[in-house]
């Protein structure tokens, strides 16, 4: 499962190259460099406030990086608008839900189809495959419900289905499994493997360590905006830096992040002190609690 | 040379007053994310209160100032935040805009009611004092104003950077939720910002009232100057806001001094702030997409096509009966006017109800259509549609500079555009002419001229019905779904590959075109039109009535059109309460503005309930009723509001969940 080296002979699907994002005096992402390959599932993990969602925003174009580059399918897309990256084959879901609340679940996917097909889609909508897509992610029983009335986990799957309508080469999934129960999460893991087997690249921010360790080929660990470790699930599990980050030793908190120019932003970093120490890092699977899941992670 | 100095000082004085007002606007906007369109209106009302205390009641000047700035204005600011604008920041921008436009109109109405028009003057501070500087005489009032503005700047700096509550204010700019989580009190912060903000509006208004006079409109439109200045600081930087205000003040002063006082350029003197605003907006950098689902949007039920056609037919028959029943020409003209307003409101249903964008100049687009129709002198369908196309083009041009920005800026630039068109174009000799005597011919369709007013009104109603049906078709189709999607989550639309910038320009153009068509038809109806028919201010009651009656439904627009037509009728019948009517409308919109589905949706709900009550009994008495299924739904052939009931999945008739 881990025979996908970072880099390699072919250009990776996605390259994040020394990306820096600063909000006022606070550095949310610091020289982050990592890749995600086609046909693999890549995990991006880290404590709350580590900059994972900010990374996603930079990759998808919702946030301009202060420095650094994003290359997608061999082309520099750092300055490209959001919709152009999407046209090039990038799809994403959101940590804070972005479903079209007043449309039905089916219409959510239909809109995605119509947008994907461009002007033709706007003039002559094609309804095919929508139900198949809903079925594939396992939410067809909700097809006729309003998207703001379905459970969170279902809405996350809906966002995935909506992405898939555009047949993306790269999927950016932001905490896709939160809100799913155990058996749903298992099914979801299988779906991710299937999608990767179709040749898609998947980059996933996720707190469910069972899922991350189970489906990812490569994992990058982000802490205070920097990549502190990259490797296979096995390597990550043994990495001392990762264990330290998750145990949350606060004496390593850089001063500028606590006394930043923006009170709101620095407050985010302080949420880390809430981190519950993880019991047995030596166990086969490590569960990192999704601490403070209600705290908005992205500081804007 | 000396005149240059004196005009610079005059400019610095007005700039200082703008800066004071603008900093209040920035403060309230940044801390609560509610852009207060009524900021200038508060300044205006407070200036009247100050006049009332210091002049009418003869209170001591300083006591009056203290009462207004230290007690009344802060109390009103606190109350407005507490009871009106609280929570609006997280909702759709359109709702916040509509609510503050409601305040805008309501306050003007209130001022007219409490202080009926009569000459009033507020003397400048220390009227007889001044300083001679070479050839230039600087009044004490000017010096005081500039000194106060510096004091305000310093005070705000200290407040925001050196006090605990100020730090909390800056924190709440970033994330009020988070502030709450860490023991801050966002509500206190917001209330304090509004108290200070309204107080600063009052100060700006009072300082300017001795120069520009106590005028309901001039002082209210101070908001355009204030936000033009604030825009330079992107509505968040106070230092840049001060720079913008001073620059604007000087620019305006120079325009008065050096531009010719007659001819076309003379018109530009009055619109310097609006022009300034456009330039700043064009130069603004690209905005980031808003992330986060927009809360609190509920769609109105969508009727089926058969039902829409049936209702449209019923409306036509109704109007035909009115026409055939020998209605007087005056009343027929009123019916035609109502149809015009209803069509303009339909354009708002598209733009605001479906698209989530607000235009504060929809009547101006109607004016463009009317002007084009009259100037083209082609009173036929080709001329009509060409006029509408011209209005659409103008609408797209207005949206173009704000292509990269968010909905708020679009709305603000429409207000500036409305003022610009009204003062520079519509009132100019080459357009409507000053007295409003531009002739327009009655429309002829396929060679048949429609000379009778009754026939023309019927044709207008037909256009209204067709427009409504076309709108519903659009809403049901793919385009309509994308519109709703864009309103619900712009960020998701972007990541799905939609280039919203051009989509928005197209939407805006289409909406302006619809308004332009209405204006062109109106020109033909009246035969003589003028700038007075399309005053920019009237776009605001139009928007408010559209929202009150329901800007998400065609029914709401139709009812709203009738309502807007009745407004001036009511006012001319009861001149004593003309202001009160505005006040009721404005504050009514404040109360109802949170539900854009408006009264129409309440009626739909009522219809549903009546249906649920009556139908079972009806079935009991008439066991075999054709066309009815046992579940109580019907085929849509008989009358009753319930026939506009939802049949689509996104119209489940839920109770609106508001912020």
Automatic annotation (TrEMBL), chain A:
Keyword Acetylation attributed: no
Keywords noted in UniProt: ATP-binding, Nucleotide-binding, Transport
Pfam families: ABC_tran, BCA_ABC_TP_C
Matching PROSITE patterns: ABC_TRANSPORTER_2 (PS50893)
Domain of life: Bacteria
Span of domain ABC transporter: 14-249
GO molecular function: ATP binding
SUPFAM superfamilies: P-loop containing nucleoside triphosphate hydrolases (SSF52540)
Gene3D superfamilies to which the protein is assigned, alphabetical: P-loop containing nucleotide triphosphate hydrolases (3.40.50.300)
Protein name per the record: ABC transporter ATP-binding protein
Organism whose genome encodes this protein: Nocardioides abyssi
Automatic annotation (TrEMBL), chain B:
UniProt-annotated location(s): Cell membrane
InterPro entries found in the cross-reference section: ABC_transp_permease, BCAA_transport_permease, LivM-like
Keyword RNA-binding: no
Record Pfam families: BPD_transp_2
Broad class of where this protein is predominantly found: membrane
Residue intervals passing through the bilayer: 6-27, 34-53, 59-80, 92-116, 136-160, 189-208, 240-258, 264-284, 305-324, 330-351, 382-403, 410-434, 454-474, 505-523, 543-567, 574-593
Region feature (Disordered): 624-659
Keywords tagged on the record: Amino-acid transport, Cell membrane, Membrane, Transmembrane, Transmembrane helix, Transport
Membrane topology of this protein: Multi-pass membrane protein
Record's keyword annotation contains Transport: yes
Similarity remark: Belongs to the binding-protein-dependent transport system permease family. LivHM subfamily.
Name under which the protein is recorded: ABC transporter permease
Annotated organism of origin: Nocardioides abyssi
